[in-house]
Write a structure and sequence with these properties.
alpha+beta, three-stranded antiparallel sheet
Length: about 120
């Protein structure tokens, strides 16, 4: 039965009762003498399954380390990032102020950042 016809009949013959189940308010709709709670649940279940269905093609297996990590960080990227830091701001969790990074050689920073990027380990103080 189409949604419009169902809605029309529900408006005409609508009778609702409320139930408390697992502390949730559930609206039960009785239509033509039968409860359509299960139909609503199945409709939502199918909708969610369709919504989150994975239709992407399978990805290929990455075998080379550079494919997994991506390209290395460039000196130009470090220079750009450091140039755009704001002075006078509180440091982050690493407790390194922007002014300290501005004083360091971008090539040394690039080496450090690439080591962190490749290993996934951030050195501690």
């Amino acid at each position: 039965m189409s949604g419009a016809i169902l809605w029309h009949h529900m408006l005409i013959q609508r009778r609702t009762t409320s139930l408390f189940y697992n502390e949730l308010y559930i609206l039960t709709i009785v239509w033509q003498g039968r409860t359509i709670n299960e139909q609503l649940r199945l409709t939502w279940e199918n909708y969610i399954k369709d919504l989150y269905q994975n239709v992407r093609p399978a990805t290929r297996n990455l075998t080379q380390q550079e494919d997994i990590n991506g390209p290395p960080i460039l000196v130009s990227e470090v220079e750009y990032a450091v140039a755009n830091l704001k002075d006078g701001k509180a440091p982050g969790e690493d407790m390194i102020h922007a002014e300290v990074l501005e004083l360091m050689d971008p090539k040394i920073l690039r080496g450090l950042f690439n080591k962190i990027y490749d290993s996934g380990i951030i050195p501690t103080g």
